[in-house]
Amino acid sequence: MRGMGAGGSRHDLQERGQAELKDVPLSRIYGLFRKYRGQLTAIVLLALVGGVIGLIPPLVMREIIDHALPEGNKTGLLVMVGLLVLLPLASGLLGVWQNHQNTKVAQGVMRDLRQSLFANLQRQSLGFFTDAKAGEIIQRLTGDVQAVQNVVSTLVVSAVTQSAIVLTSVGILFALDWQLAILATVILPLFLLPVRQVSAIRKRLRIETQRVRGDMSARLGEIFGVSGALLTRIFQQEPQQQRQFSELNERVMQLELRLNLVGRWFGMVIGVLGPLGTALIYLYGGWKVIEGTMTIGSIVAFAAYLGMLYGPVATLLNLRVELGTVLGVFQRLFEYEDVVPEISDREGAEPLREVEGRIEYCGVSYAYQPGQYALQDVTFSANPGEVTAIVGPSGAGKSTLIGLIARLYDPTEGAVTIDGRDIRDVTLHSLRKQMAFVTQESFLFHDTVRQNLLFAKPEASQEEIEEACRQAYIHEVISALPQGYDTMVGERGHRLSGGERQRLSIARAILKDPRILILDEATSHLDSASEAFVQAALDELMRGRTTLVIAHRLSTILTADRIVVMEAGRIAETGRHAGLLAADGLYAKLYRTQFAKAGADAEAEMRASTAKSR
Ligand SMILES: Nc1ncnc2c1ncn2[C@@H]1O[C@H](COP(=O)(O)OP(=O)(O)OP(=O)(O)O)[C@@H](O)[C@H]1O
User: What are the protein's UniProt keywords (predicted)?
Assistant: First the structure.
């Protein structure tokens, strides 16, 4: 199956909330953190020191109550109070530093992960993006990676330091009074039992909220993208979208409310249980004080320690749920890292040097899905400098055919060669350097006109850019824009007209100056003036290059050196216009239904506009 990787095929990529330890190789997670292990050790040590410092104040209070006060020792009192001020200060300062180090490590790991995922996504062939949802890719690269932040704070720091704090506190409790300590260690887990239940509920709610929020962003992206906004208005779907959105919106609100309410209840239970524990300690401990077997200072210290234990114990109880979530995130990220590109350089692939431009398809078949052939046994050649027009009904396999020459896909059977070399034997970079694609949808990035042009040739000078634009009959239009070549083209180039966008993408191809040109002529009808400009620009572009063109224009098929007629994935006929017309086959039928009509329409429009201008 295409796209199979160690993490499975891209079709298997799923949204998972939780994962088990056995599902995720820990060594791989460790690998991500390895280069930060020095910093991590420092973080854990700092957290331990901070935690231990935090444990001292109750002992100081015991000293004040049991010794300084009864003995009237003012100096001792001053020293102890000083300690009560300084200790939290020291632990606070350590906390700031440690938190900064935490974030540094987490951000470093996140940066490395994003970089590695981005690089792997860039290597993927087109098929990957046809199947994956853009929103999901963005979610993994931003949202999921963000979740890694929790790993450092939750797992590394919490697990180690909280365990240390709990162990030390329990040790101190036993040293203070072993009977009371046994009582405390028995009642504490009872009080904390609801914590697990509540956090499991909160976790579920949080995952659900994130999912609904994700849906909301995806919907908003579609609805308010220029194409979506246009479609909505044309089909007058505003009220329906309003309704759908308000449902989602309501759901987000309800979920957030429930999440908050569960949180509040939880806070309340802890708020009540905490003092209840303290009350029990005072009851039992107070009894012992009255009987003279325990000091007042010890009870105060004891109660303080007990209060300090709730947080860390709750965190430790939650650790399994947290660990599951974190592992789930890593699992999803590793899946993306593991998708093996379908198309990549073969071992020992050599660069394709300057070519003459002879293209041959030798017995090429291609199936998107096993057994379902979009192309079957296609054989033809395109001579250097000639124009080969590909025509055929919708779904005949024309786009698939031209995609193979740039190795957007590799043939299931057969081979495509350039100047006699199998294109799978040369490096992808050098292959694609030899060709330019002008597609139906002239995609432009949300950037300036200049940057969009430089995409084809980053080192091009202003003169080269302008020359290419002159040849594409677009220079005048650009010069008349408010900031000329520095004007932003708007989302997907929607500031420019369809014809202008096409000419800009033609200028981009001219700038690249390739030997091989792949064209997918737009089916949309431009007005005759625009059409004439686009045609003139295309003629300029095709001159002297080997051109494969999915033809929709009459002029293209009339002047083509060869016409390849496709039908249901096979070549039905090849030849030139006159010969094919005479043969009275599929081409003649297509010509009568599509091309002759398109030509007549264009001619009529041309005549009308000339009459009007007179
Ligand atoms: N990504 C894909 N996955 C599965 N099948 C596909 C995919 N892309 C195209 N196909 C199928 O392959 C066949 C050929 O499609 P192709 O786009 O090459 O036709 P076409 O001649 O360019 O059509 P049109 O003129 O309508 O653009 C069609 O049956 C189509 O449904």
Answer: ATP-binding, Cell membrane, Membrane, Nucleotide-binding, Transmembrane, Transmembrane helix, Transport
The secondary structure element, H or E, covering residue 391 is strand 387-391
Please tell me the distance from the alpha carbon of residue 137 to that of residue 13, in angstroms, as a whole number.
11
Measured from the CA of 523, which atom of ligand 1 is nearest? Answer: 25
Distance CA 497, CA 299 (A): 81
Instruction: Report helix angle 296-338 to 238-291, nearest 10.
Output: 150
Structure tokens at 468: 């290419």
DSSP-assigned letter for residue 426: B
Ligand 1 lined by 397 (C-beta under 6 Å): yes
Task: For 523, list phi and psi in degrees, rounded to 5.
Answer: -85, -20
pLDDT in tens, 298-330: 888 888 888 888 778 877 877 777 777 777 778
The CATH number of 357-434+544-614 is 3.40.50.300
Domain limits, CATH 1.20.1560.10, in the chain: 16-338
Dump pLDDT digits (tens) for 462-475: 999 999 999 888 89
* Residue 53, C-beta contacts closer than 8 angstroms, at least 6 positions apart: 87, 90, 91, 94
Residues 6+ apart with CB under 8 A from 543: none
Reported ipTM: the value is 0.94
Inter-residue contact 65 to 296 (CB < 8 Å): yes
The answer, yes or no, to whether any atom of ligand 1 lies below 6 A from the CB of 312, is no
Q: Are strands 413-418 and 359-369 parallel, antiparallel or unpaired?
A: antiparallel
360-389 pLDDT, tens digit each: 999 999 998 888 999 999 999 999 989 999
The CA 370 to ligand 1 mean position distance, Å, reads: 15
Residues in the chain: 614
Q: How far apart are CA 240 and CA 613, in angstroms?
A: 44
Amino acid occupying residue 514: P
Beta-sheet strand order (sheet of 421-422): 372-382, 359-369, 413-418, 421-422
The residue whose CA is least distant from atom 17 of ligand 1 is 399
Choices 1.20.1560.10, 3.40.30.10, 2.40.128.110, 3.30.457.10: CATH for 16-338: 1.20.1560.10
Task: Say which amino acid occupies 510.
Answer: I
The number of the ligand 1 atom at minimal distance from the alpha carbon of 566 is 21
pLDDT of residue 607: 59
Q: Binning pLDDT at 50, 70 and 90, where does residue 1 land?
A: very low
